[in-house]
Amino acid sequence: MEASFDTEESFDDPSCLAPQPPGSVSPAKRQIKEVKETKTTINCVTFPLPGEGPEQQLLKPNDWSYCDYFWADKKDPQGTAHVAGFEVLLQKQLKGKQMQKEMAEFIHERIKIEEEYAKNLSKLSLSPLAAQEEGTLGEAWTQLKKSLHDEAEVHLKFSNKLHSEVEKPLLSFRGDNFKKDLKKYDHHIADLRKQLASRFASVEK
Description:
The chain contains 5 helices and 4 strands, in the order H-H-E-E-E-E-H-H-H.
């Protein structure tokens, strides 16, 4: 009977027939392994090897987006000057001042609603309705009005917390301390950017 072999390796290659030392990989399998090694994993994150991955695409190619130009510089529309990537990031953050103001106004409106609701509940709890009733009906109305008063207190406390823990910090976040910190770190970032530009120039030589 004629023996048949089901294998991917070709016997036309003499190296396939040569004895292989223990633990070695055949040429065919080595070739398959080399084809698959196009990625590397660092800290549980997989990256394509240099030359294997596609060219990185800008997330927002038509915008001055800090997500694309954090370290790199971008030319202005006239192409006569460059805008530092850190400056793009900084301008994005400074625009958050308006958003922060709008958030504080939103919270302030919520506080007014809570205060008005608490005021109306408290007023309703003072209603003289069924004040002369006795027995279970009188007790039921007394408990109902007490629950309204307690609920009014809860909403009033909630409005006070919104003011002290949300609205007030939002309004004071970008005060004098923010400007001082920004000025302090601005010089530090400028020095780091000079070092980065110098190293880029050294690499390109």
